[in-house]
Write a structure and sequence with these properties.
membrane, 287 residues, transmembrane, 5 strands, 7 helices, disordered N terminus, elongated, Shikimate kinase, transmembrane helix, 7% strand, five-stranded mixed sheet, alpha+beta
Length: 287
């Protein structure tokens, strides 16, 4: 059987690329469940008296964010790889853009949730006591990590530092070191979320220009530098999560970077096929 030439060199390489790509997408779907479990666990220590509608995004920011990104990723997959350009017209195009618009709203909404969580960590009060063990018998929770809490008990109270803080509005305490580490992780969440929003804006522009046949070499060069800066920021965030020992965030960030490498390669393949198609048409016209 004769294999067709693609951007990847052959059909065999392309099939391997596709298999790894969809396996990565499946793992990202699993991450939605993992973030939901983590945030439901945190909810037992935070909004213990009930969650108001306006607080839902702060409680489930990572779950909503990840779910919206998975849908958005699959839409980009459809547009850049699965669907032929000739089919992305009329109702199909409107449907894709409509669903993508809803995802964008969810992603920006999640960004506000990360911001609210960061602000909450800075709204704290120093406790008069420097001995956490003196608070035993009261319904206190200890901030272990961002979105990770344990009940205060005799086994962990002695390990807390002398400088204790209460998160305002919650029965949650943390020593200075724990609070600072959680604030850094919250900043990382916010910066990471903002960088991804900018990535998708650049990618959206690139896809639309490609569909309209206006993706020039100059535009591609500008996009390349902008995306390099954004992906560097995302790699730095993933590295920080790895060093800080936040495995789920590190794993999720690594998967997303891997997934968007596939989307970028989809775009390269798309551009390659367009150039080859134009070359064939040009040769036919000349003949």
């Amino acid at each position: 059987m004769v294999e067709r030439e693609t951007f990847f060199g052959s059909d065999r390489r392309y099939r391997l690329f596709t298999a790894v790509k969809y396996f990565t997408y499946a793992l990202l779907c699993v991450n939605v469940y993992l973030f939901l479990q983590e945030e439901l666990s945190a909810l037992q220590h935070t909004f213990t008296h009930g969650v108001a509608p306006a607080q839902l995004i702060q409680v489930f920011a990572a779950t909503i964010d990840t779910a919206a990104w998975v849908v958005l990723l699959l839409l980009f997959e459809l547009e850049t790889s699965v669907l032929d350009d000739s089919r992305i017209r009329g109702g199909v195009r409107l449907s894709l853009h409509g669903i993508r618009g809803v995802c964008y709203v969810a992603i920006v909404y999640a960004f506000t949730g990360y911001y609210a969580e960061l602000v909450t960590l800075y709204q704290n009060s120093a406790l008069a006591t420097g001995d956490a063990c003196s608070l035993l018998g009261q319904p206190w929770s200890v901030l272990v990590d961002l979105d990770e809490y344990v009940p205060l008990d005799a086994g962990n109270c002695a390990g807390l530092g002398a400088e204790l803080y209460r998160i305002d509005g919650f029965d949650i305490l943390a020593d200075a070191g724990q609070l600072f580490d959680a604030q850094l992780l919250a900043w990382t969440d916010l910066i990471n979320s903002g960088a991804w929003i900018l990535v998708v804006v650049v990618l959206e522009i690139e896809v639309r220009m490609q569909l309209r046949g206006g993706l020039s070499e100059r535009a591609m060069q500008v996009n390349k530098y902008v995306k390099f800066a954004l992906y560097f920021t995302l790699f730095a965030a993933a590295a920080y999560w790895g060093v800080a020992g936040d495995f789920l965030d590190f794993w999720d960030a690594a998967l997303w970077l891997f997934a968007f490498i596939f989307i970028e390669l989809n775009v390269f393949e798309w551009q390659y096929e367009t150039r080859v198609g134009e070359g064939v048409e040009g040769a036919s016209a000349t003949a």
